[in-house]
Specification:
There is one protein chain. The protein has twelve helices and six strands. It has 230 residues and is α+β, with helices and mostly antiparallel strands. It has two domains: 42-174, Alpha-Beta Complex (endopeptidase fold (from Nostoc punctiforme)); 191-229. A hairpin with a 4-residue loop joins β1 and β2 (59-66). α8 (138-147) crosses α9 and α11 runs antiparallel to α12 (213-229). 26% of the residues are buried.
């Protein structure tokens, strides 16, 4: 029972993080027009550097391999539908990315800096300061990234692009972004008003939509999980 409860809470956290990132991904589309016009001084990047692309809510990470190539972990629904590399190697669209997040399929792929950054600014090795961890030698970082190229499972909480680059750069896979989101959720769960609010919303849903199982079950389960976890 405790294990099932843990899995349910983990799934809920992952879906909440996915929903919170929808706005982030939707912001990519307008930048597509300026992606090809943005110039990046790739000569300033060293093989093994961590490249970061800040977004509104999240940051996308990759490992620079040299020769204008960046290895990064990217969800993509097309990987589950075809093995044709001429199709899967094209720049991942918003729709492919979002569906890839849902079905949890991804790959560690290589793109140009322009395709990786999508018109945004690029920060270099900013994680070294924020994590205060000692980085491995750059060549070792790049080698680790190259060894992991190919298909991989995807999880917003447990295996995202930040986990990939921290494993390559520091030898340990961590994701401060996912950790911060979990802390926010803990604060909400610990606030007993969340239990009351979810219970009221659940009762309102039952009154308005009836006692159908797909309405009644979440209406009871969510307040119960919040109460038990609080």
């Amino acid at each position: 029972m405790k294990n099932a409860m843990g899995e349910a809470v983990s799934l809920l956290l992952e879906k909440l993080l996915f929903v919170s990132s929808l706005k982030l991904f939707s912001l990519r589309a307008p930048e597509e027009d300026r992606r090809s016009n943005r110039f990046y001084e790739v000569s300033s990047f060293l093989r093994g550097d961590v490249l970061e692309v800040p977004r509104t809510h999240l940051t996308h990470y990759g490992i620079y391999l040299g020769d204008n190539r960046v290895a990064h972990l990217m969800p993509d629904i097309l990987l589950a539908l075809t093995a044709d590399q001429t199709r899967t190697q094209k720049v991942v669209s918003n729709k492919r990315l979002l569906l890839g997040v849902i079905v949890k399929v991804a790959s560690i792929r290589v793109d140009t800096v322009e395709d990786f950054a999508y018109g945004a600014d690029v920060l270099v090795n900013h994680l070294d300061e924020s994590l205060r961890k000692k980085a491995l030698l750059n060549e070792e970082v790049a080698r680790r990234a190259e060894e992991r190229l190919g298909l991989c499972p995807y999880s917003l909480l447990w295996n995202n692009c930040e986990h990939f680059v921290t494993y390559c750069r520091y030898g340990t896979a961590v994701s401060p972004q996912a950790d911060k989101f979990c802390e926010y959720v803990k604060i909400i769960i610990r606030d007993q008003r969340s239990v009351l609010a979810s219970a009221i919303l659940g009762l309102a849903s039952i009154v308005c939509m009836g006692l159908a199982s797909f309405i009644t079950f979440p209406a009871i389960l969510i307040p119960f999980c919040l109460w038990i976890s609080g």
